[in-house]
Amino acid sequence: MDDIIDILTEKITKTLLKDPKLKLDPSEPLISSGLLDSFNLVDLALIIEEEFGVRIEDFELNADTFDTLSDLAELIAERQ
């Protein structure tokens, strides 16, 4: 699961936030903290599909489904 978190961290900081030096903690809230907004979530879903071959449904793109890198990595691991 650490591999998934590492890839997600790289993609989020580099592609979505445009700050590759930013360090994200796996338990840090991404959505509820405002770090990622609704536009970023769509892009994140596309990244997940491309990188991991896992589909995130539109209704899952919210803080209730996943809000941290750990939550998201767990979801990806379950669906792989």
Task: Describe this structure as you would to a colleague.
The structure is a single chain. The protein has 80 residues and is mainly α. The chain has helices at residues 2-16, 38-52, 69-79. It has a single domain (2-79), classed as Non-ribosomal Peptide Synthetase Peptidyl Carrier Protein, Chain A (Orthogonal Bundle), CATH 1.10.1200. The protein is built from three helices and no strands. α1 (2-16) packs across α2 and α1 (2-16) crosses α3 (69-79). The longest helix is centred in the N-terminal third of the chain and has 15 residues, at 2-16. The termini are close together.
Produce the secondary structure layout.
Blueprint: H1 2-16, H2 38-52, H3 69-79
Keywords:
Non-ribosomal Peptide Synthetase Peptidyl Carrier Protein, Chain A; mainly alpha; 0% strand; 80 residues; 51% helix
Short description:
The protein is mostly helical and 80 residues long.
Tally of individual helices: 3
Order of helices and strands: HHH
Name of the CATH class: Mainly Alpha
Specify the helix fraction band: 40-55%
Number of domains: 1
The total of beta strands comes to: 0
Largest sheet: none
Radius of gyration: 11 Å
Flag low-confidence runs: none
Shape from CA axes? globular
Give the CATH architecture.
Orthogonal Bundle
User: CATH superfamily name?
Assistant: ACP-like
Distance between the termini: 11 Å
SS-based class = mainly alpha
Mean pLDDT: 94
Kindly identify the CATH topology.
Non-ribosomal Peptide Synthetase Peptidyl Carrier Protein, Chain A
- For this structure, the quaternary state is single chain
Q: Strand-residue fraction?
A: under 5%
